[in-house]
Amino acid sequence: xxxxxxxxxxxNVETSLMRGNAGFKRWVYNYGLExxxxxxxxxxxxxxxxxxxxxIKKVFTQVTMQKAEYAWMKLYPxxxxxxxxxxxxxxxxxxxKGLTEFPKKKSKKKGDSFTxxxxxxxxxxxxxxxxxxxxxxVINAGKLIKLPGLKELRLKERIDFICSSQTFTVxxxxxxxxVSFVLDAENIPPVIHLIDKLGIDLGVKTLATCSDGTVYDMxxxxxxxxxxLGKLQWKNRNKVLGNKKLKIRASNNAKRYYVQxxxxxxxxxxxxxxxxxxxxxxxxxxxxxxxxEDLNVQGMIANHKLAQALSNNCFYEIRRQLIYKQAYYxxxxxxxxxWFPSSKMCSKCHHIQPMSxxxxxxRCKSGCGNIQDxxxxxxxxxxxxxxxxxxxx
Length: 393
Ligand SMILES: [Zn+2]
Known about the structure:
Blueprint: E1 2-9, H1 12-39, H2 49-62, H3 78-96, E2 113-117, E3 137-139, E4 142-146, E5 152-159, E6 163-165, E7 167-173, E8 176-183, E9 195-202, E10 208-210, E11 215-216, H4 220-235, H5 252-286, E12 287-293, H6 297-300, H7 304-312, H8 315-324, H9 326-329, E13 332-336, E14 361-363, E15 371-373, H10 374-383, E16 390-392
Parallel strand pairs: 9-12, 12-13
Antiparallel strand pairs: 1-5, 1-8, 2-7, 3-6, 4-5, 7-8, 9-10, 10-11, 13-16, 14-15
Helix pairs in contact: 1-2, 1-3, 2-3, 4-5, 5-8
The protein binds zinc ion (ZN).
């Protein structure tokens, strides 16, 4: 089973519709939770939580939903409240088994989410069984997705293959909305890679340099956002968010500043995630064997500047994404031994020579005439690294 999660590209109308759906789900969940716990105090009723919730659902659809004041509920797909009841059943059974805390009421603060699914199949003739797979939604390759009971929505990143799923969960983290759904493995067609083997040098100056000549730059927006962050921090350098021990209370200005600061940090993290996601998808689409250096970040932490650069360029994030995307794109990620001299070796004649970090151009001293960008040279060496120097991720 594979899960796909994509960010949605929503306009204002769509955003408020998503908020509405999530609000409806929250309302029903809290309603069921309250009625269930109240029902425990009714004497002489011996029913399981699940049976009680079934009765509560009947009350909800036949009584509550029919009231004029709740007419708005009919604007939303019925699977939203259906899945709210399923979630409740699940939450209570987990609690009964001692797996979780007592189910709490849902609050807006904890983020929004709701689930929709395709209900039944199409019956061609009455009494005959439904066609197989008609309870599934077919999702075409591309940037559009039609969720059951909702209009077609746009995605920020495309889906590469035609696939299908039944259940879709829409969720919000900060101001971003996502849709996630599960696929059956056999539904994923093989991806035809244009490049057999690709070496990637994760750099300090650029995000990544590939052996086919592609260079991925650091997003300029991160630099801008970082400058803004720096300014923000400098302007507010004297603000302290209180101190409980010293009994200093935080000023409203300080509180406001810290909210702003957290927002700016999240903004930078988002830009980075977008960039690395796009890059790793792009690479996984085009190359079959992907090789990156198996860097030992522990050993590099001593070098503060390098550590900063590595964390900036989200080395780990890129590696993690390339590895998990193997399942979707049928790629093979190889990690090249960290002692393999990818930067110090000539990619043409394999002559090894010292290279300081500041040297940006590789000029082969063996006389083979190779003059090449440092990172490009390294990426070719990673691509051609001998098998005994590579372990599969
Ligand atoms: Zn050479």
